[in-house]
Amino acid sequence: MLRQCNDFIKQDASLLASNIALVRADVSRLPFSSGSIDAVHAGAALHCWPSPSNAIAEISRILRSGGVFVGSTFLRYTSSTPWIIRPFRETMSNK
User: Fold this and answer.
1) Residue 44: what pLDDT?
2) Which residue has the higher pLDDT, 78 or 16?
3) Which of 28, 25, 90, 79 minimizes the C-alpha distance to 58?
4) Distance between CA 8 and CA 44 in Å, rounded?
5) By C-alpha distance, which of 4, 1, 39 is closest to 19?
6) If 71 and its partner were Cys, which of 7, 35, 42, 51 is the partner (CB 3.0–4.6 Å)?
7) Are 68 and 42 in contact (CB under 8 A)?
8) 33 near 67, Cβ under 8 Å?
9) Pairing between β-strand 37-42 and β-strand 63-71 as defined by DSSP bridges
10) What is the Cα–Cα distance from 26 to 8, expressed in whole angstroms?
11) Entry pTM
């Protein structure tokens, strides 16, 4: 994904001129100073993390005050789906 993103950036002059960096890192040990990042995006990734709670704590650490985290994941509902997640299905079914 990083290679593909890098190729995309190379094709867009405005992105090449912007302050953007692609970094490969363990989400539980991010190589950024505390409070140094404006935004974090993790699209369709949370279900892949070995410890989502550790990852969220680490993302919280690096975000500046007022920073934004946008994350998503895939959920599969079965009879064993934890009760705390079930309202998400109801919300999504009503849209």
Assistant:
1) 84
2) 16
3) 28
4) 19
5) 39
6) 42
7) no
8) no
9) parallel
10) 23
11) 0.69
